[in-house]
Specification:
The protein is mainly α and 120 residues long. The protein contains 5 helices and no strands. Helix content is 83%, strand content 0%.
């Protein structure tokens, strides 16, 4: 049953992300993506705070945290996980996680681009 809540929330989050991308903002800087990531981080932080202070149904958490935030931006999940590592005073793991996430994902983009050239 959890898959249904994730799917419904994911559809809502993805639709919201697409709606943000349609805003008539023209700049060379990816401001809409930055704003989306910030809003997603605020939202997942709010949800995590509510969950830690109240009894919320697991399906509601799946809908909002995994579904909506995951569909809106996975950067919010990355940010919450990094924050949690630092909050738990696991600074080394937090730093390694941030470093590896950025470097490896950029390397993944590079490799994917090179692979696409090889295929065509």
């Amino acid at each position: 049953m959890g898959f249904v809540f994730v799917a419904l929330g994911g559809a809502l989050g993805a639709a919201a992300r697409y709606a943000v991308s349609l805003l008539p903002v023209k700049t060379g800087f990816p401001i809409l993506t930055l704003l989306t990531n910030i809003v997603g981080a605020v939202l997942i932080g709010f949800i995590a705070g509510i969950v830690s202070n109240n009894e919320i149904s697991p399906n509601t958490v799946l809908f909002w945290k995994t579904g909506v935030c995951g569909g809106f931006t996975t950067f919010s999940t990355f940010s919450l996980e990094a924050f949690t590592l630092f909050e738990n005073k696991d600074y080394l793991s937090g730093g390694i996680y941030i470093f590896l996430s950025v470097v490896c994902c950029l390397a993944g983009i590079f490799c994917g681009r090179k692979l696409s050239v090889l295929i065509h």
